[in-house]
Design goal:
It is built from 2 helices and 8 strands. The protein is an alpha/beta fold and about 130 residues long.
C-alpha cells in the first residue's frame, strides 16, 4: 500500500492559516476533519492535512527556499476550475506566483497555478491531463 497518510504543517498564526488553508483546501474538495485549540485538519481521499502551532516553533514564517518542503501540489480538476481558483486566491490570503507564465510555468504541457500564502507556504494547483 502506498500514499500519504497525512501532512502536518507548523504555523505561527493559527487564525490566519485556518482562513487561508481552509479556503484553499475546501475549494479543492477537502472537508474539515477536526479542530482543537492549537490546530485544524482537513481530509480528502483517505489522507489529511493539519496546520498546527507548536511551543517548539523556531520562527514566524516558512522559507521554501531553505532545506525542507518547497511546496505542496494538489489535484485541481479541469483547467477552468484552476482559473477560477486563481482569480479568487488574493481575496483569501494567497498571492499568485509566476503570473507572467500562467498557466504553463511548469512547461507547455503542464497546466497549473502557483500560490503563496502569508506564512510563506507555496501551493501548486495542477489541472487534470487533457
Amino acid at each position: 500500500m502506498s500514499g500519504f497518510h497525512h501532512v502536518e504543517i507548523w504555523i505561527a498564526d493559527l487564525q490566519q492559516a485556518r482562513a487561508e488553508w481552509g479556503w484553499l483546501l475546501q475549494r479543492l474538495g477537502f472537508s474539515l476533519e477536526s479542530e482543537w485549540p492549537e490546530g485544524v485538519s482537513w481530509a480528502a481521499g483517505g489522507a489529511y492535512l493539519t496546520v498546527t502551532t507548536s511551543p517548539s516553533l523556531a520562527g514566524t514564517t516558512h522559507d521554501r527556499r531553505q532545506p525542507g518542503v518547497n511546496h505542496l501540489a494538489f489535484k485541481g480538476g479541469a483547467p477552468d476550475r484552476i482559473d477560477a481558483l486563481m482569480a479568487e486566491a488574493e481575496q483569501h490570503g494567497w498571492r499568485p506566483l509566476y503570473q507572467e507564465r500562467y498557466p504553463h510555468a511548469g512547461g507547455p504541457g503542464h497546466y497549473a497555478g502557483w500560490l503563496e500564502n502569508s506564512g510563506g507556504f507555496k501551493a501548486e494547483i495542477v489541472a487534470d491531463a487533457p
